[in-house]
From TrEMBL:
Domain AB hydrolase-1 per the UniProt entry, residue ranges: 12-233
One function term, GO molecular function aspect: hydrolase activity
Keyword tags: Hydrolase
Source organism of the structure: Streptomyces tunisiensis
Full protein name: Alpha/beta hydrolase
Cross-referenced InterPro entries: AB_hydrolase_1, AB_hydrolase_fold, Sec-Metab_Biosynth_Hydrolase
Length: 244
């Protein structure tokens, strides 16, 4: 068993996206735990959408009681897929995240609206994928990371985030999404208006399409790091609405 909670509060499961790791949720988790919410920050493999979603679904299966599932960036695609068939998920929260419909990929959605400068900041590396085939994975150039990903985060923190970023495969960003969980689950979205990875217009479009309740933050893509209290407040309100 991965996690069993006896708390009357729903468990909040936080899923990071590309170019990040679970520590990007640290301050949000601290805020939520202070209020008595059980929290699990899942380590997103970032290898492929179907496999990443399957892993998160396994994490969910080990949690007793209702879950609020939260995703950042590419993690939004992962929670959208992972929620399908996970009977304990009660709500989805997207933070500066992709909210794909069936057949859409993160790459498709990122290119649909102008305003992203991510492509210019990426560094590709040739790798061997889990199935043994050749592929590509990407990181953000460390020198460009603070401005590109975390412009409103203190410089020293942003530089450490650049060093500890985790690469994502091109296959993960290109894989089409399955039937989305937001069709049957209530959804919320935090739109980062100063995001240089996923333009705010794209975030707003996806949130509206999913029928999500929207909160706008004047924040970079790293909204969970620069505005943890505000992000935690949204998650806390969602958790309160889905209590047992």
């Amino acid at each position: 068993m991965f996690h069993r909670s006896r708390s009357p509060e729903p468990t909040v499961v936080l899923v990071h996206g590309a170019f990040a790791d679970s520590t990007s949720w640290n301050d949000v988790a601290r805020e939520l735990r202070r209020e008595g919410h059980p929290v699990v920050a899942a380590a997103n493999p970032l290898r492929g959408l179907s496999g990443d979603a399957a892993y998160v679904r396994e994490v969910l299966a080990g949690i007793e009681g209702p879950v609020v599932l939260v995703g950042h960036s590419y993690g939004g695609s992962v929670i959208t897929a992972a929620a399908v068939g996970a009977d304990n998920v009660r709500a989805l929260v997207y933070v500066a995240a992709f909210i794909p419909d069936k057949g859409e990929s993160a790459l498709d959605l990122a290119a649909r609206f102008p305003g992203s400068s991510l492509g210019e900041a990426l560094r590709p590396t040739t790798v061997t994928l889990p199935d043994g085939s050749p592929g590509m994975e990407f990181t953000i150039d460390q020198a460009k990371f603070p401005h590109q990903f975390a412009a409103d985060v203190p410089e020293g923190v942003a530089q450490l985030m650049a060093v500890t970023q985790r690469p994502v495969t091109g296959a993960a960003l290109e894989e089409p999404a399955p039937e989305p969980g937001w069709r049957t689950l209530p959804s919320w979205a935090v739109v980062a208006t100063e995001d240089l990875n996923i333009p705010a217009a794209a975030q707003s479009h996806m949130a509206k399409r999913a029928g999500a309740e929207v909160t706008e933050l004047e924040a970079s893509h790293a909204a969970s790091v620069s505005h943890p209290r505000e992000v935690a407040r949204v998650v806390r309100e969602v958790a309160s609405s889905v209590k047992r």
